[in-house]
Structure formats: structure tokens, C-alpha cells
Amino acid sequence: MLPTPGHTPGSASFLVPSVHGLTYLFTGDSILRDAEGTWIAGHIPGFSDRDSLAASLSSIAGLAPDIVISSGFLGDTGVTELGERAWADCVDEALRSLTEN
Fold it and tell me: What predicted TM-score, i.e. pTM, was given to this entire model?
């Protein structure tokens, strides 16, 4: 379990290696993709703690998942295969969404 408070106080993420050699990152609602496929932080104005969420996202940026599963999503699915894209780049994109709102 990886504590990732900010979206809500008790938010957590889970990094799970599979027997098939892939690593899955379950992020809850801390980070997700919007309908266009852009990574965004799961910040709810007036409810979430922006600073805690930013710190949480920064803490998981160094992970190396192959597949990210978000319980929240705005497109067709919450499952994202990263392929060649670096996870740290996805997290940076989400962190930018915190400063733009």
C-alpha cells in the first residue's frame, strides 16, 4: 500500500507485480485521465487537499508501472497501458492540472 492522500484523506495506491511480468498501479481517484486522454489530478475543489495531493503524486512519480488502473475516469476506461510513455511524464501532466485550476 502506498498512502496517496489529497483526493481524500485516506486515499491509497497499490503497486502490484503480476506473475506475467507486468506491474500494475491502482491509483484510486488520485490521478486519472480525462476524456481526451490527458492525465489530471483527482482534485475536488473545496474538498480535496491540493498540497497533499501534489505531494502524493510526486511520491509515486518514480514508480515504473506498465498498466495504470484508476477507479475514476472520464473516457472509455480507467485502464491505461503506458507503452513507451514514462509514468513520470504522466504524473507531471497531472501536476500541471493542479496549478491550472
Answer: 0.92
